[in-house]
Amino acid sequence: MATSKLRLGVGLISVGWMGRLHTRSYKAIPERYPELGVQPRLAIAADAVVEAAQEAIGQLGYERATTDYREVLADPDVDVVSICAPNFLHKEFALAAAEAGKPFWIEKPMGRCLAESAEIAQAASDAGLVTTVGFNYRNAPAIAYARDLIARGELGTVTNVRTSFLADYSSDPQGALTWRFERDRAGSGVLGDLLSHGFDLATHLVGDIEEVSAMTSTHITERAKPTSPNASHFSTSAGGEKGPVENEDVALVIATFASGAIGAFESSRVAVGPRAEYVIEVYGTEGSLRWDFQRLNELQVSLRRDAHYGYSTLYMEPGMGEFGRFQPGGGTAMGFDDLKTIEAATFLKSVLSGEQYGPSVLHGLAAARVVDAAERSAHLGERVSVAHSPAARDGV
């Protein structure tokens, strides 16, 4: 006998690649998480570009579309909101969502700077909202399994952590000068765009980061302005008028954790070779582990108690994190989109229960504090302490 599902109205702000991904994630909920008993209803989408707004209806299946995001927040059919706009619009949209009392799922970095992230977190807290921030890599089953190994003490005392987020999306000097390269619209470069993920993963696995010492550099110092209003950081714009790149291409951060462990964080958006080599390694007195996003469904583990030294590769299978919701057995891979489906489910579970599951705006603020400290350290040429929100690490 069929049972009725609760229909939650979804409002989408910004119909780009990430907006489309949020939409697919909501659509997957009834199949992947039937126990939630919810059927997301694609109520209304907003995008300032008329063609994109129309695509939300024709391609994505939203009931209505608009070019004014305020109509999304005012719509009584909207129960939850996805904010998928560029960084420079996050604060405006998130504060408006909080004022409207709409729980929101926002991509990282939350704000262009620490002050903006703090405003967003405070507004959500004042409104009593549950939220989700797009730290999707922590949803990988291998990361869930790694966190369990560390929590059980299988690695012993953690001594050091290495995180490397290397990408090539801006390695072409002919790449267009989009908003990502402008400080006023993006904030920092790879510190916020890539290493915010690395800082979140390390905190999720090991604990708070207390001090940082950072160096940054910009290797492609100018780029041609885009020739299309829809240009992304993957677009080329050869031969056009050039403008300066205002934030960092490369960053290296040495950190001290509250536990006494030390960490090394490196990132580049101009690397030639790595496509999306996002790696975290955790070393302890009794063992170590390694995970690379490019091998999403694998975890390398070495434990002293084993008869031999060296790494064994664990292939994810049902029973490890959320793997079993997506594949019936080990060896058949999960993908990037699946990580966002887990994120969507965590968000809706929080909304339905009124309890916070998964990374919230407090975790977004925690990452922003480390990014801010790293920026100040690079500017000052000295170690900088990281200020912490008391509830930044609430067990999820």
TrEMBL record:
Gfo/Idh/MocA-like oxidoreductase N-terminal domain ranges (all copies): 9-135
Chain intervals for the UniProt region annotation (Disordered): 221-243
Polar residues composition bias: residue spans: 227-238
InterPro entries associated with the record: Gfo/Idh/MocA-like_OxRdtase_N, Gfo/Idh/MocA_oxidrdct_glycsds, GFO_IDH_MocA-like_dom, NAD(P)-bd_dom_sf
SUPFAM superfamilies, sorted: Glyceraldehyde-3-phosphate dehydrogenase-like, C-terminal domain, NAD(P)-binding Rossmann-fold domains
Domain of life assignment: Bacteria
Transmembrane portions of the chain: none
UniProt domain GFO/IDH/MocA-like oxidoreductase: residue ranges: 144-290
Record's keyword terms, sorted: NAD, Oxidoreductase
Name under which the protein is recorded: Gfo/Idh/MocA family oxidoreductase
